[in-house]
């Protein structure tokens, strides 16, 4: 019990406290821990990964070249079985199946003159005046389009791969508007039908942001703060919305970014997340909006995280589509992080493309209204909307009215959209709450993959890169957030800058400052027992009784034991008995017996001669073993370390290690780790120990107080409020969900929706949980989560209210 709470508890403390905690544990201040446990059970935000995989156990294939940094641009060329990797001043063609194999490379540096000019403009020659490869796209003729920052003078070129060689054509095309000047500035781009859509700054200072399409007729955004206001661009995606579209609608290009909210009243410029979109067929207006988008519409996008006052800021998105179903079923998964540095939470929210599309097609607009002579307020526009609808693509209705291209659009429509590109309503995530929230390393990138598990259901598994070079693998099982594992992908804690998935190789590719890594979606062999394999709740893995191994579902024809929703390991055959190891110890000596559970969610228990061992100053239960201090003759015997893990169905106990301990003269104990031999003569006195324990109790109390103060642990007074609200909220959840289901009724209700439906009974089922460690799913519940509280974003709902 205590050991597990210790594991859980450590995750809530900032790292600098970990050492102190460890010390506390080693000294066995166990009577205080139940208190700590009781507190943290109410904080589901800790979401502990079940497994922590250190770098040396990851088995990643890696690529890096000496002296080359910033491997942050990738293009999957599945047609050529290549991974194109853009770094600083170099592009590599790597074997897609094994990226440690370099097939070709090409250098693209800057000239001395370019470097000198860059330096003269006040930029750092070593950091900024280099050519950072930023854009890599496939062209229709199989060549690639590549752009680099080129010492603050962006340039683009064509590149081809043939006969094992990468060649740049040295076309030297102007890269302004296609690629940022500043290598530290965020940008986004996508190639659609040989036209490059890019979102970046068009000037040296980085102060003129645009979304542009570089085509024979180039189209861009207006330079107006109502269009783009100090944006940070995140990602782009295309959507084939013309497919089987009854309204004759056009394909769209979506852009995700964050920016200063023009609609916010607060003077300190609140940052909000946005989704914008343009129509592929947009040619700009005739007089108004000449060579500018006539279809640029944007909306706020929310990810309501419990305990947050300020809106969270979008950092990355992943478009997930079922190839068998129409575009309306596609989902955007997005990562959010706090805008103030007061919190270390990150979140993932999922959005239906159909919800976003509907908002742009049918939603109300916001309009600026001048109040008190100079102050501008953005409110819902409630007047007449011109026809064709401002911002809409050319559709059948427009064509009927004789408008076949955006050049034919009336000035009224164009002037309207020029002044009002912002939609009134914010886009809400599915279930109106995040699918994952975690405290700890900041999320940077996300990929989502769907897996049909042994139970026949399809689950969405999230792969999330962090600032610290780790990758989380997580799922949401009917509203329950579960982190399967956290993998230390890169040896040094450096941010994951790019993450890609190839559905051809089934591999993930990640890039960081110092290199690139490739890993499979699952590494089932890491589980050596059936219990561990099943309790991992990884939809990719199952236990094969015939061979006695944890194997990948995709590689097996046999029926495997798996239980992702419940973690039910009752079908597991009995594990092979553990071989006892011999240890010996001197009377008065100290000895550590190691025992590490494969799971962070398990608690370890010790038995001696089949009787439970109670921790004391004499027997100290550590996270990774048992410490016996000042051994006496009576300490000999059979010691067994048990790992107890609770799943939804029951507690599972496995023997992790067993020791035969003999107390006697040295010599018989080969391999025994006898510690502190000096303790035989002058070990710590009981009085001394008591003094130390007393001191540490005081420091623990100080720590707890500090945690309350910093908000790392919820105050107990919140709990009462929470439970009184539960019944009502479970009910409200039900209502929300049933209306969602109703709206979606025309769609077949299939299994893959399930992971995202954040269960009706979610609230009640989680309230029954008494174990904080396995449940990260209760986020949002018990709070006012669905209605985001934005005290600083005060909207007046209607113009008439002014
Ligand atoms: C991979 O995904 C693409 C779309 O991104 C799809 O067209 C293709 O069929 C998929 N291939 C496999 C093997 O699933
Ligand atoms: C490039 O990599 C170095 C680490 O070697 C890092 O310090 C720097 O910030 C990176 N530059 C960019 C633009 O990401
Ligand atoms: C432990 O010692 C016993 C005898 O005391 C011996 O039979 C056994 O083989 C030893 N086990 C190991 C693993 O050395
Ligand atoms: C070690 O244990 C013995 C009795 O087993 C006791 O007399 C002695 O005081 C203990 N030493 C320390 C330092 O606790």
Automatic annotation (TrEMBL):
One Pfam entry name: PSI
* Domain of life from the UniProt record: Eukaryota
GO molecular function terms listed in the Swiss-Prot or TrEMBL record: chemorepellent activity; semaphorin receptor binding
Q: Which residues cross the membrane?
A: 687-709
What GO terms fall under cellular component here?
A: extracellular space; plasma membrane
Keywords assigned by UniProt? Developmental protein, Differentiation, Disulfide bond, Glycoprotein, Membrane, Neurogenesis, Signal, Transmembrane, Transmembrane helix
Its family remark reads: Belongs to the semaphorin family.
Name of the protein in its database record: Semaphorin-1A
